[in-house]
Specification:
globular, mainly alpha, single chain
Length: about 160
């Protein structure tokens, strides 16, 4: 498998979600909501494509590319975390929400959600790539760790 083929396969779920959001924008009266949800996946695709660049394109230094990648990652994470907190959790919204748990538990879950959502940055860090690439065992353990953290994040989301 080439790097490009793997990258396309990894992006397929995001493209399906973008298509789903576009379809909902077209078919429902909530066009803005589904358009903003689509933005979350578009940002994720852009960040994935940016971070898959092996060397900077003509006219950019490695430092400039790293700044662009970091900024893209930061914006995508803030966008997705804001969506989680405002839309999915309804914690920062204007509508009152009926809470099943004490307020403190919602604050804790919100903090954990943002932290756990940020773990995907590890997959793009050069030091981490070197460690993961050192052996198949490291690669499998790392994939298990990142996947487990995402499952925990989604479990928290489902509980709230």
């Amino acid at each position: 498998w080439t790097g490009c083929t793997v990258q396309i396969l990894l992006l397929l779920p995001l493209f399906f979600r973008i298509a789903q959001c576009y379809r909902r924008m077209r078919d429902t009266p909530e066009k803005l909501r589904h358009g903003l949800n689509c933005g979350k996946y578009v940002f994720a695709v852009l960040v994935s494509l940016l971070t898959s660049m092996g060397k900077p394109p003509r006219g950019l230094t490695s430092f400039q590319l790293n700044v662009i990648q970091t900024l893209g990652y930061f914006l995508a994470t803030v966008y997705a975390a804001t969506w989680d907190l405002v839309v999915d959790f309804g914690l920062l919204g204007f509508k009152s929400r009926r809470c099943l748990f004490p307020r403190f538990s919602y604050i804790l879950v919100a903090i954990l959600d943002v932290y756990l959502r940020s773990t995907w940055l590890l997959t793009y860090q050069p030091d981490c790539r070197a460690y993961v690439g050192a052996s198949t065992f490291n690669k499998e353990c790392f994939a298990f760790l990142i996947s487990s953290l995402e499952l925990i994040r989604r479990g928290l989301w489902a509980t709230i």
